[in-house]
Automatic annotation (TrEMBL):
PANTHER family: CATION_H+ EXCHANGER DOMAIN-CONTAINING PROTEIN, NA(+)/H(+) ANTIPORTER-RELATED. This is Potassium transporter TrkA. One of its GO terms (cellular component) is membrane. The chain crosses the membrane at residues 6-26, 33-51, 95-116, 131-153, 165-188, 200-218, 238-258, 264-282, 294-316, 322-347, 359-377, 389-410. The keyword Transmembrane applies. It is a multi-pass membrane protein. SUPFAM superfamilies: NAD(P)-binding Rossmann-fold domains (SSF51735), TrkA C-terminal domain-like (SSF116726). Its main location: membrane. Residues 557-641 form the RCK C-terminal domain. It is found in: Membrane.
Length: 670
């Protein structure tokens, strides 16, 4: 009874610590460090060597948290192994995976074995134990983090054969690493327990793997049954966590009963079972989306607990003694990964420029790697502490170095599609309107009345040759990069798009990736394109829904809405970018502004910030102001730049912009 009371008390204290860790770890993002690194550092600080909020005696009581976390990390890894997305690059995926598994594993294991006499915690161990440790380290060296890889790909908006190969190799290798770890762990059990080798051991190993695969299939069926029930996602998430933990309980019980009733030990690998269960659901179940949603929802909480507890388990006194060894392991891993990936690229006949940087995406390690380290540390307490401390240090170093290397590789092969960087670049206030029709002409006239430079572009050569009351119209042959540069669209501050959604999306992607156009305004026709436009930061005008929204605001907030729509001729709203270096660092409360001007909002580095009187201005900040036209002109001069092209100044359009009438002949909207 006292044991269970201790566990409850330790668990309550640990949960309080993890809540704090989840918040504090976010500050590491501000210094460009991964959240995982923050959780490990916080774990070290609250652990038994610093603040002692997690005492050393609690670590053994909280081992079940590791089991729960590892099961869910394996579920997440299995969920990434979606076969339908791996087609098309299977040759490169197959050979690079082979190169990393074979060459990286063999070279790293051999190197560590031959220098084991110079590694403090290995030097006095028996030869067969050194071999086991070398094999286990070699296995962990091969592992890579799918989660961090996907995060970098999303951040860089990376697309192309190189990116597809990388994500394919990462998810396939994660599955194969678990199998390799299972084999090496079984071999290690035989060698460390001094069991004589005979043919029976081979059959036992095959039997263990077969049993793990069978249980993985059964687990997949069980998860499928669980997801088929009508219940809340929260309840399903809790039951899935329990199911994952029961896999570890089953593995421990199978080992215990085999020791007690059989003449040999049976080890089934719970990580392999869980990854197979996740693999089954995403590939052979109708509940793939729901399973992925649950994994996505629960994984952050699991990571917080797992990495905080891992940091608390780190032995600082051992860390100081083994840091040099960890550095050696770190550089050794970089070298063997480079060799393995390069040879795999040769076998796959990948282009030479790709092969030279193909090793860079595989440096980062996280969940599965730390999970394997945790399993080994618990399984072999005689040398597990030193083993764990060294390998965790290597993984932390990989977390620092890996993401920048992956980003650089994506840039080098030219598969980055993130926004072109124009931060603080001074641009003329030019607006390009694509699509020649009634609404676009009305918009152009209204913007020109507000002293904004406007040019219209159309693919209709005949229409482009006509006069439109002083509005410049240019003919554009296509939406390619060179043609857009020819008409001067690359230097524009804003694009307004009246074309059909597919064409507008093509222009938006080009503007986002090549020009860094600050404002993209799109008239939407089909809501299925909305998310893709939003990912590019476009402002979307959907006439039907916006008409209802504006009428709603006119009822609830008539004064503010009237100002925004330009109904009040004496008031205006503008966005102004601060370019005056003399005002840099000045608090908003210290700005000398006309008395009828109010600051409504502030945006910095494309992100809105909650501004107060104590907010300090930075060059490049965009301020949204409301006031009289004369006063706003004074503020523009004070900030050293013309106002941003502001589409809230569409006075002449008012409701016209929101009312579309289809031509009876099926032509453009007018």
């Amino acid at each position: 009874m006292d044991i269970y009371l201790d566990i409850i008390l330790f668990l309550a204290g640990f949960l309080i610590v993890t809540v704090a860790a989840s918040r504090l770890s976010l500050y590491f993002l501000k210094v460009k460090l991964p959240i995982i690194t923050g959780l490990l550092v916080i774990g070290i600080i609250v652990g038994p060597f610093v603040l002692k909020l997690i005492p050393s005696e609690s670590l053994s009581r909280l081992n079940f948290i590791n089991d729960i976390s590892l099961s869910f990390i394996a579920f997440a890894a299995g969920a990434e192994l979606y076969l339908a997305e791996l087609k098309g690059r299977m040759k490169s995926i197959r050979w690079i995976t082979f190169g990393q598994l074979f060459f990286t594993f063999i070279l790293s294991s051999s190197a560590i074995y031959f220098v084991s006499d110079y590694i403090p915690f290995m030097s006095d161990l028996a030869t067969h134990v050194k071999l086991v440790i070398s094999l286990l380290i070699g296995t962990i060296f091969v592992a890579r983090s799918p989660v961090s890889a996907i995060a970098i790909i999303n951040e860089m908006r990376a697309k192309g054969p190189f990116t597809k190969t990388v994500i394919g190799v990462v998810v396939v290798k994660e599955f194969l690493v678990i199998i390799l770890f299972t084999i090496c762990s079984s071999i290690g059990n035989v060698l460390i327990n001094n069991v004589e080798f005979d043919a029976k051991l081979v059959f036992i190993l095959i039997g263990e793997l077969s049993l793990s695969f069978f249980l993985g299939y059964i687990l997949g069926k069980g998860i499928n049954l669980l997801l088929s029930f009508r219940m809340s996602t929260t309840v399903k998430s809790i039951l899935l966590i329990v199911l994952g933990y029961l896999v570890f309980v089953l593995a421990h019980q199978v080992h215990f009963f085999s020791q007690k009733y059989l003449s040999f030990d049976i080890y089934i690998e719970p990580l392999l079972i869980c990854i197979l269960g996740g693999f089954y659901i995403v590939n052979y179940s109708e509940f793939r989306r729901e399973f992925s949603k649950i994994v996505e929802k629960v994984t952050p909480m699991i990571y917080i607990m797992f990495f905080t507890l891992t940091g608390a388990s780190l032995s600082l006194d051992t860390f100081a003694q083994t840091f040099v060894i960890a550095l050696f392991f770190f550089f050794l891993r970089l070298i063997v990964i480079g060799i393995g990936t390069f040879l795999g690229g040769i076998l796959a006949n990948d282009p030479s420029h790709t092969r030279r940087s193909s090793w860079m995406p595989y440096v980062t390690q996280a969940g599965i790697s730390l999970g394997l380290v945790s399993i080994v540390s618990q399984k072999y307490p005689e040398w597990g502490v030193e083993f764990g401390t060294i390998l965790i240090t290597v993984i932390v170093l990989n977390l620092f170095v890996g993401p920048p290397l992956f980003k650089w590789a994506i840039l080098k092969v030219g598969e980055s599609h993130r926004k072109h960087d124009v931060m603080h670049e001074k641009r003329d206030k030019k607006v390009f309107i694509f699509g020649l029709e009634g609404q676009s002409l009305a918009l152009a006239r209204q913007l020109m009345n507000s002293d904004i430079w406007v040019k219209m572009a159309t693919r209709d050569k005949e229409k482009a040759s006509h006069e439109y009351q002083g509005i410049p119209v240019v003919h554009i042959k296509d939406f390619g990069l060179e043609e857009m540069k020819r008409i001067g669209a690359d230097s524009a501050d804003s694009f307004v798009l009246f074309y059909q959604d597919e064409e507008s999306l093509e222009i938006c992607e080009l503007a986002y990736e090549q020009f860094g156009t600050r404002h993209l305004v799109v008239r939407l026709h089909d809501r299925k394109y909305m998310k893709r436009f939003q990912e590019l930061g476009a402002l979307i005008v959907e006439p039907a829904s916006m008409l209802i929204s504006l009428m709603d605001h006119l009822v609830r907030s008539p004064i503010a809405t009237s100002i925004i729509l330009g109904m009040d001729e004496s008031q205006d709203t503008v966005d102004i970018e601060m370019q005056n270096a003399d005002l840099h660092g000045l608090s908003l409360r210290d700005l000398k502004l006309p008395t009828d001007v109010i600051i409504l909002a502030t945006k910095r580095n494309e992100n809105p910030i909650i501004s107060t009187g104590y907010t300090r201005l930075r060059k490049g900040d965009v301020l949204t102001l409301v006031g009289s036209k004369e006063s706003l002109e004074k503020v523009k001069l004070k900030f050293g730049q013309q106002s941003e092209a502001d589409f809230r100044q569409l006075r002449g359009l008012k409701m016209k912009l929101l009312t579309k009438i289809k031509s009876p002949k099926g032509g453009d909207y007018i």
